[in-house]
Amino acid sequence: MSFVQWTEKTTAVLRNGGVIGPEERLSWPQTGLMGMQHVVAMFGSTVLAPILMGFDPNLAILMSGIGTLIFFVLTAGRVPSYLGSSFAFIGVVIAATGYSGKGPNTGIAVALGGIIACGLAYALIGAVVQAIGTRWIETLMPPVVTGAVVAVIGLNLASIPVKNMAHGNFDSWMQAVTFLCVALVAVMTRGMLQRLLILLGLLVATAVYVLLTNGFGLGTPMDFSGIARAAWLGTPTFAHPVFHSDAMLLIVPVVFILVAENLGHIKAVTAMTGRKLDAYMGRAFIGDGLATMVSGAAGGPGVTTYAENIGVMAATRIYSTAVFVAAACIAIVLGFSPKFGAVIQAIPLPVMGGVSIVVFGLIAVSGANIWVRNHVDFGDTGNLMVAAITLVLGTGDFTLAFGNFRLGGIGTATFGAILLHQMLRLRRAAE
């Protein structure tokens, strides 16, 4: 399988609102700017997940960059995707380590052993997919299923900015100002400025926030002290894994969630780019699995393909894998810079919430776009039931527990959609 050879596109393509495909690229300076935008998009979640588990967030940023490069190489540079910290590990890591939620996780070693074992299982599943092909995926996940699953990925995350990133009326209004800024950049600018709508919208909204809070005393002022104290360069905190069977048995089942997430993300990118990426599905699983193993071996969290970055691609229509190489390299450099981490963490929470509303909404709409592109017939009762039940399971975060393992909304929606579709398909075949 040949490795990607990028073809440079002119700025006229940007001015005319054209699409930049995975095997194409912008000029390197423009590619770097787009890469920075993807770093900003993934940063909040990639930092938040390790904080919730008691891991070093700077190490998580570093490993996200390394993991993205591993994924890029394993997929021959053909699949545009960014790998960030996975939230699927949070519950099982806390259960395995007894983490209290404050400070460093003293039981991190046993969690790392479980994360590495999960990554190995993930890579083995990828090897099986690569060996026997992907036709079975089309049978299991036709457009009615994939559209519902992709939409659920965005809808399931919606409560995070709406419920948890605004702590008062002022914060809610700032979220509205933020997504309005992003929307205005999207519709009132052209060319490269339009493609940087997330980054520019965030910068404008942050400036408005500082003016209103630090200047006029409305809301909580933006705190710059952490930025001033942080060093420009610093080494992340590395850790060594310990392999305990109990922790491994608790953490390894997360692989099913990772498979479901990656499958949905690749289906979304396939729909957006018009490229057939199923041939790279096995490689994508292997790349994600190896990246998770490498991250765990260094002391970082498990990683997964990121919905936030898919949302950015949907908004910008730039799918060049060169952008993700740039983003990965930027993340690796920034992983050694506590100063940058402090800058990102200083961005006001409601501003990040407003940006998240846009990004998660774009993901949900891309799921509906799969239905439209594939002319899914909702006059068919079976299709209607699959889509309706899946959307509510995922949006409502319907959770099932199997002992200590919990399958959350995205997992139950994904596997529920697959099983329900197969049951109804067999029923129709029997009639």
What are the salient characteristics of this protein?
431 residues; mainly alpha; globular
List the helices and strands and how they pair.
Blueprint: E1 7-8, H1 11-15, E2 24-25, H2 28-53, H3 57-74, E3 83-85, H4 90-97, H5 108-132, H6 135-140, H7 143-157, H8 159-164, H9 169-188, H10 191-195, H11 197-215, H12 225-229, H13 245-251, H14 255-273, H15 281-298, E4 303-305, H16 307-316, H17 321-335, H18 338-346, H19 349-373, H20 381-395, E5 400-402, E6 405-407, H21 409-430
Question: How do you describe this structure in short?
Answer:
By secondary structure, the protein is mainly alpha-helical.
What can you see in these coordinates?
The chain has 21 helices and 6 strands. The protein has helices at 11-15, 28-53, 57-74, 90-97, 108-132, 135-140, 143-157, 159-164, 169-188, 191-195, 197-215, 225-229, 245-251, 255-273, 281-298, 307-316, 321-335, 338-346, 349-373, 381-395, 409-430; strands at 7-8, 24-25, 83-85, 303-305, 400-402, 405-407. The model has no long low-confidence stretch (mean pLDDT 86). Helices cover 69% and strands 4% of the residues. With 431 residues, the protein is mainly alpha-helical. The strands form 3 sheets. Strands 1-2 form a two-stranded parallel ribbon.
Question: How can the largest sheet be summarized?
Answer: 2 strands, parallel
Unreliable residue runs: none
What's the mean pLDDT score?
86
Quickly count the helices: 21
Strand content: under 5%
> Fraction of residues in helices?
55-70%
N-C termini distance = 43 Å
Question: Strand-and-helix sequence, N→C?
Answer: EHEHHEHHHHHHHHHHHHEHHHHHEEH
The best one-word shape is: globular
Please identify the structural class as seen in this structure.
Answer: mainly alpha
Q: Can you list the strand order of the major beta sheet?
A: 1-2
The rounded Rg comes to 21 Å
